[in-house]
Write a structure and sequence with these properties.
mainly alpha; MetI-like fold
């Protein structure tokens, strides 16, 4: 520790000039119009999609082989024609209708299993065992069994859709239930809620971000499983949705129509993600302050 010298000469005072504040104009700087536009997520996504479409068009023109890779304009012409004659809309509605049935049934079964798992020990062991066994099993691998058990048609499609949704939904829902804080659990117990009321009023709202993630992943799994399954069931039974539309046009070498079918699959996926699930997020987890 340095000793202070009492005989040292006093140090001269030093003064510094503080720069003047620039005023409110610097803080309230107006945002340029282009920056306001660029801050909108939908516009940025549209720019990305437009860039991908330009690359698609450029590669199609460069390859100059419409049987292998049609241009974006050829695909849009095929898309417009199939919309106008009603074929593509009918196939899309067939796929979406079947998907909604399998998706709803899968979510219902996952909810039952998750509630049993969070309220009873045997239910927890049962869910952990089933998910360990069946979650790694691809839904496509069950197509031969579905044909044997349910035959061609709707039953087989529903079976593989339920398998693709059930396990991922149950895992996310159960993980969300387990992640609920002890404080929230104690609140439910102090109010004397029964098991079902405890799950509905305490666990489900607190775990809804995980539940919503499971719904998104389950929808994606179910959508691609359905298209793959329709390539088998649809063309075999003489009926089907977008998967059959793609397969049928491939056999007829209508490659622009094949790409139009794939484009329809992408559009429906974008609509679900950016309209349906986005609205659910805004009405629930974002309004509740669980997500920014």
């Amino acid at each position: 520790m340095t000793a202070i010298n009492p005989f040292a000469p006093p140090r001269e005072d030093q003064f510094f000039e503080v720069p003047a504040f620039g005023g409110h104009a610097d803080v309230e700087r107006p945002i340029p119009f282009w920056e306001k536009l660029w801050n909108k997520a939908w516009l940025r996504k549209c720019v990305i999609i437009a860039a991908l479409a330009a690359l698609w068009q450029a590669y199609g023109v460069f390859s100059a082989n419409s049987l292998l890779f049609p241009t974006f304009t050829d695909t849009m012409e095929a898309f417009r024609d199939n919309i106008a004659n009603g074929v593509l809309l009918a196939r899309a509605w067939t796929s979406v209708r079947v998907l909604l049935m399998g998706y709803a049934l899968g979510i219902g079964l996952a909810t039952v299993l998750s509630v049993l798992a969070i309220t009873t020990r045997i239910g927890n062991d049962f869910l952990e065992t089933l998910t360990s066994m069946f979650n790694p099993l691809p839904a496509i691998a069950l197509l031969p069994l579905a044909l044997l058990w349910f035959g061609l048609g709707l039953g087989s499609l529903i079976f593989v859709l339920v398998h693709s949704v059930l396990w991922v939904m149950a895992l996310n829902m159960h993980a969300g239930f387990l992640g609920v804080s002890q404080t929230m659990r104690m609140v439910g117990r102090n109010y004397g809620l029964g098991r079902l009321a405890y799950v509905v009023k305490i666990l489900v709202p607190a775990a809804f971000p995980s539940i919503l993630t499971g719904m998104k992943v389950g929808w994606a799994f179910a959508w691609r499983t359905l298209i793959a399954a329709e390539l088998v069931f649809g063309v075999s039974s003489g009926q089907g949705g977008l998967g059959w539309f793609i397969f049928e046009n491939k056999n007829q070498l209508e490659i622009p129509s094949v790409f139009a079918g794939l484009f329809s699959v992408i559009l429906i996926g974008l609509a679900m993600e950016n309209i349906v699930f986005r609205k659910i997020e805004e009405k629930t987890v974002r309004r509740w302050g669980m997500q920014h």
